[in-house]
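Re: weekly structure request thread

Next one in the queue (144 aa):
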Amino acid sequence: MSNRILVAVDGSQASAEAAKVAARIARENWKELILLNVLETGSADSVDKVHIQLEQFFKSAAAFELNGVRYLPIVETGDLKKKVLDVAELMGAEMIVIGFVGLKGVGKFKALGDVARSIIEDSKIPVLVVPQEQKERITPYQLA
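Done, posted below.
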C-alpha cells in the first residue's frame, strides 16, 4: 500500500480546508502529501510563480497542520480532472482529497461541479470531499 495522499489545491479556502484535513490524516498515519495545483494553460514562468505561491500559501494557511508532515508541491498544466487522476496514479496515491464550498441539501451535490463529480466517479482510489469552513476566510492567491 502507498504512503501518499494527493490533495487538489488552488489557493482557495476550500482547498486550504482540504489540505488541513489531509495533513491531519497524513500525520496520524505516517503518510506523505502531494499538493497538486493544475493550471489550464501556462508558461514555464507562470508555473514557477504558482509553485512559489503554493508554497507560501500552505506555509501560512495550513502551517500548523503541515508541521511535521512531508509534502511535495506539484504544479501541472492541462485538464484538471485528467491531471488529478493521472498524478494520483503516477505518484501511487492511495487517496485523493478535494475541497468544496459547503452548501446544504441537494445544493451540496450540485456544488461539487462537473470536475469534482468526474474525479469521484472515475477515481480508482478513495476520494475524500472536504467542505469549506464558513467561520474563517483565507484570501486566495491571484494567479498571474
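Residues 4-131 form a domain with the Rossmann fold fold (CATH 3.40.50.620). The longest helix spans residues 44-61.
Next request, please.
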